[in-house]
Amino acid sequence: MVEARDITFGYSRPVLNGVSFEVSEGELFALLGPNGSGKSTLIKIVVGLLKPQSGSVRVDGRDPALISRREAARAIGYVAQESSVRFPLTVMEMVLQGRFAYGQLIGFESERDLVETEWAMSVTETTEFAATPITQLSGGERQRVMLARALAVKPKLLVLDEPVANLDIAHQVKMFDLVRELTQKTRMSAIVVTHELNLAAEFATSVLLLKSGERIAAGKPDEVMTEAKLRKVFETGLIVDKNPVSGAPRMTLVPTKSQ
Amino acid sequence: MKRRSFTGDRLSVRRLAIVLGLLVVLLTAVFVVSITIGSERVGLLDTVRVVTSKLTGQLANVALEKQIIITDIRLPRVLMAIVVGAALAVAGSAYQALLRNPLADPGILGISSGAALGAITATVFAESLPISRPVAAFVGAVITIGIVYALGQGGERTGSERLILAGVIMNALLSSIVIFLVTTASGARQRNVLSWLIGDLSGEPALLIPVALFVVSGIGVVYANARSLNLMMVGEDDALALGVEARRVKIAVYLAASLLTGAAVAVSGAIGFVGLIVPHAVRLVGGSDNRLVVPAAALVGSSFLMIADTIARTIVAPRELNIGVITSLVGAPIFVYLLRRSN
Q1: Minimal Cα distance from A64: which residue of B?
Q2: Which residue in A59, A89, A95 has the most chain B C-beta atoms within 10 A of its own C-beta, making it the best mutation to test that interface?
Q3: Does the distance separating the beta carbons of B244 and A69 come in below 8 Å?
Q4: In a domain, B163, yes or no
Q5: How many folded domains does chain B comprise?
Q6: What is the SS3 string spanning chain A?
Q7: ipTM of the complex
Q8: CATH of the domain at A158
Q9: Does the residue B328 lie in any domain?
Q10: Which of B11, B98, B101, B234 to mutate to test the interface with A (most CBs of A within 10 A)?
Q11: Where in the sequence is the domain holding B43, given as residue range(s)?
């Protein structure tokens, strides 16, 4: 689904330095790394918002920066790290924006648009807010609305930049559950940037570790999320063992002082 | 959770039709009242007779001097209020959507001053060619929005305060240049120009038709991009990712909004706050979807300016107040209220 080869990008100093990765159909791909490691830049390149200085990206076989925005938008659902909306659009109006690439520039939404929108709101549990202005929602509720908008696209690839940053633990799990369920059922692929290592280990099918714009490791969570690699990438004390229930890698922070 | 019953969960064709229908009725009523009221008494019925006779081509049974007052004096001025009001209100909603800032307004951002400088320059160098004024005002508006946008764009995010501050600074600078040009121009014209600067609809009936054409095409371009603007209001990257050709939309709408501002300023000076309060009122009642906000703002802006002009003509009769005084008296407190609420 996604093929990135030797992506290099940088303004005055390099942000990404020859990063390659692949995401197959139906995969939930987690992108991990410390702040400033280039995660957001990398996914903006995948979405087609930025053009790499060298290297190539293919999403569903096509370069997202070279096809029309409309065409790219029908394949990729994207939720940015944060959006501050200052106009009181209703939640349903927000989610309907996901259907923009399917409609006419002038005119109204079709029946199909409404069906997809209602579906997206129901799976993200935002239907009850349909008529509420987005400006009145809490940060977590707003994040679910933004996910609903990306799902209304009916994308082949869902790209989420820190989707659980504002969520309580129950909603964090729900969010990952939902994304995993969608990738399994609909063969949609997902790329998720997150700082929640344990959730990534639990839900992701593949993980990419990024540091200072370099790929450190990529592969299955239990191959990549080892004590040595994570310590190297995040430069903090932690121990890795197994989640007693699922068997996935379990990270426990060990503050430097108690080491 | 508070729900707005009338606006519902999304803009429907039905709501759009109801709102626009009511606003057309409002506009018509305000229009008839505006040409009826004035220092010379004319009956409401006489106004209706004269207007229908104009439309049907039949003779009206109304005293000739009253007919002249209505058709030659008040009608051009009220029509100008319609054109200018629609232009400023739509320009305001366009700038607000593009800048993702509900406080944007051609006056507050200094764009009107840029247009005024353009118009003044045209007056100084090409007085015999009146059409050069709206064209030069358009150029002035385009250049100003470019500078304000660049100044307001600081670091990571464009804060609304920074943008407004950039507008205030440009306003001060451009107004000084305008005053300098006016002062060095010949004395007899000075009073007229100063009055025009504050906002005055009495000036240029000859430009009514070309300016109306500018305004209609400007509103057309903004409306054609209304759906894209709904997405641009949320964020440019978001809009791009969802399929909006953001660059093209931005250029088209900036140019259209500048055309609207330039056309309005060229004939009526810098009438402030219309672009701020009208779109805000429309959103409050009808929701934020630009497919409704743009046409509704045009209708409300027209009605608002006709009312403001009627007040300006009559409140200190037989003298006249500048219409800009009325709109600022109404608009400035509303701006302060919105600014406080936005933080």
Answers
A1: B241
A2: A89
A3: yes
A4: yes
A5: 1
A6: CEEEEEEEEECCCEEEEEEEEEECCCCEEEEECCCCCCHHHHHHHHHCCCCCCEEEEEECCECCCCCCHHHHHHHEEEECCCCCCCCCCEHHHHHHHHHHHHCCCCCCCCHHHHHHHHHHHHHCCCHHHCCCEHHHCCHHHHHHHHHHHHHHCCCCEEEEECCCCCCCHHHHHHHHHHHHHHHHHHCCEEEEECCCHHHHHHHCCEEEEEECCEEEEEECHHHHCCHHHHHHHHCCCEEEEECCCCCCEEEEECCHHHC
A7: 0.91
A8: 3.40.50.300
A9: yes
A10: B234
A11: 13-342
Per-residue pLDDT of chain A (259 residues; tens, 9 = 90+): 999 999 999 878 889 999 999 999 999 999 999 999 999 999 999 999 999 999 999 999 999 988 999 999 999 999 998 777 889 999 999 999 999 999 887 778 899 999 999 999 999 999 999 999 999 998 889 999 999 999 999 999 999 999 998 889 999 999 999 999 999 999 999 999 999 999 999 999 999 999 999 999 999 999 999 999 999 999 988 999 999 999 999 999 987 765 5
Which amino acid is it at B323? I
Distance from CA of B164 to the nearest CA of A (A): 15
Task: Report the alpha-carbon distance of residue A141 to residue A33 in Å, rounded.
Answer: 26
A83 touches chain B (CB under 8 A): yes
Count of CB pairs separated by less than 8 Å, A with B = 119
Q: Which of B339, B306, B342, B337 is nearest to B323 (CA)?
A: B306
A234: contact with B, CB 8 A cutoff: no
The residue range of the domain holding A217 is: 2-258
Assign B241 a pLDDT band (cuts: 50, 70, 90).
very high
CA A117 – CA B78 distance, rounded (Å): 45
Q: Is residue B126 part of a domain?
A: yes
Q: Please check whether residue B105 is in contact with residue B97, taking contact to mean a CB–CB distance below 8 angstroms.
A: no
How many domains, in total, are found in chain A?
Answer: 1
The residues, ordered by sequence, that sit 6+ positions from B289 with a Cβ below 8 Å of its Cβ are A89, A93, B10, B11, B226, B230
Nearest to A195 by CA among A243, A149, A238, A245: A238
Q: If you average pLDDT over residues B44-70, what whole number do you get? A: 84
**Residues B249-261: pLDDT tens digits?**
999 999 999 999 9
State how far residue A97 is from chain B, nearest Cα, in angstroms: 7
Cα A32 → chain centroid? 11
The enclosing domain of B270 has a CATH number of 1.10.3470.10
Whole-model pTM: value is 0.91
Residues of chain A contacting B241 with CB distance shorter than 8 Å: 47-49, 72-73, 76, 78, 80
Query: Is B73 inside any structural domain?
Result: yes
